[in-house]
Amino acid sequence: MGFPAIAARPVSLNIGDAAKASGVSTKMIRHYESIGLIDAARRTDSGYRLYSEQDVQVLQFIHRGRALGFSLEQIRELLALWQDKGRASADVRALARSHIEELNRKIAEMEAMKRTLEKLASCCRGDNRPDCPILDDLAMH
């Protein structure tokens, strides 16, 4: 004789524990819920949010996506692709390649900003005199 099978109970975490487990702040969890990026949390009778392990996995996914610089809209697309088991990996790759192009553009812009600031800083004497080419340049543009 065996014991009757016991259904596994879903783990229910409060928002603080879900935040710690996922790396996403409680404020951002609420924000993601308010914009529909994540499903509304289940609630206790007293109104506290409850999160399952699956909810935490989604939050971890979002956290990693944000760390890679994906926008919230891109993450929304990635989440839909992740949850669609019939997806084509080509769709995911295309989104990633598009993001890489965007990052390359931003890097080029930042490198140009850095070169400009380096040039301006090299022109500045950095002494006690009031004249400053850095401030002059900012005022002219």
Automatic annotation (TrEMBL):
What GO molecular-function term can you cite, just one?
A: DNA-binding transcription factor activity
Per the record's keyword annotation, is Amino-acid biosynthesis included, yes or no?
Answer: no
Q: GO CC annotation: what is one? A: cytoplasm
Instruction: Read off the InterPro entries from this record.
Output: CueR, DNA-bd_dom_put_sf, MerR-type_HTH_dom, MerR_fam, Tscrpt_reg_MerR_DNA-bd
The coiled-coil regions, if any, are 93-120
Q: Which Gene3D superfamilies match?
A: 1.10.1660.10
Q: Which domain of life is it from?
A: Bacteria
Q: What UniProt keywords apply to this chain's record, in alphabetical order? A: Coiled coil, Cytoplasm, DNA-binding, Transcription, Transcription regulation
Residue span of the signal peptide, if any? none
Q: Which NCBIfam families match?
A: CueR (TIGR02044)
How is this protein named in the record? Cu(I)-responsive transcriptional regulator
Q: Give the species.
A: Massilia horti
